[in-house]
Design a protein that fits this description.
- This protein is 67% helix and 3% strand.
- The chain contains 13 helices and two strands.
- A two-stranded parallel sheet has the order 1-2.
- Helix 1 crosses helix 6, helix 1 crosses helix 10 and helix 5 runs antiparallel to helix 6.
- It is globular and about 70 Å long.
- The two termini are 31 Å apart.
Amino acid sequence: MLAWMAAVGFTLQLYFDFSGYTDMALGLARFFGIRLPQNFDSPLRASSIIDFWLRWHMTLTRFLTGYIYNPLVLWLTRRRLAKGQPGIGGRNPTVGAFVSLLMFPTVITMFISGLWHGAGYGFIVWGLLHGFYLTINHGWRVVAARLWPDRRSYDRVMRPTGLVLTFVSVTAAMVLFRSPTMASAIDLLKGIIGLNGVALPQELFDRLGPLSSIFHGVGVIADESWSSHDFAKTMIWISFLMFIALACPNTLQILARYEPALGMKPRSTRTVMGRIVEWDPSLPWAIGVSAIAAIAIVSIGGPSEFLYWQF
């Protein structure tokens, strides 16, 4: 339990960290009359790992696709065709074509993505892991097209399922990205899959009454290093931040009518909630922004880790 809380906390920290840096870059560019392209589009709402990479660090994804993945696929395709081997076109590609023209370029591209973030083992393994994630996702799309021809029923089942699977996969990979060493990352991943047991704070465990013996019988142990207050506070923060990431409009959607990034066009807002959250130069928004600014100024002396300094 504590391992999952730490992993989700890592993911949310990186999510809001990166989102904030992107908004700062877009805003600073607008001061000089420059519109930068969109770089972040609520990636935790992605229903597949392919969709995730179309939303997370979008400019890097386009760069790697255009300058590494596409040239590599083109070169490999020409080699295969010169040898008389089939390409990957069509709905039923051969295993050899899939491995040569999709899996290999994808893994190499994501390996380079890991190196781009840093030369540490954690970044490299993180990149390779996402390469295999993407390969599995592409392979599933090929298989699903044969097994599940009804697109509507497929979306009805797989969209929520894909949302959960994508979030779990991204969270597990973020442990490698965020941990200072591979040893600490592996230890936390063991906790995620239950190899270190399932732990609850000692105070919370004591309040379970008769249930404590049942929990103890299935392997749940008490952890004295965490208080129930810290546990509850962390759960509340994670729930609140998850609600913002998954249910609330992002900053580009709020500011869409002013084209905050290249390609962001105003959308017709039909719902009452959509009209409420849409930014406009009004007194309520002035009060809200002023309150946020005041909280930021008051908290400026607190601990603040600049995660992306090395990138």
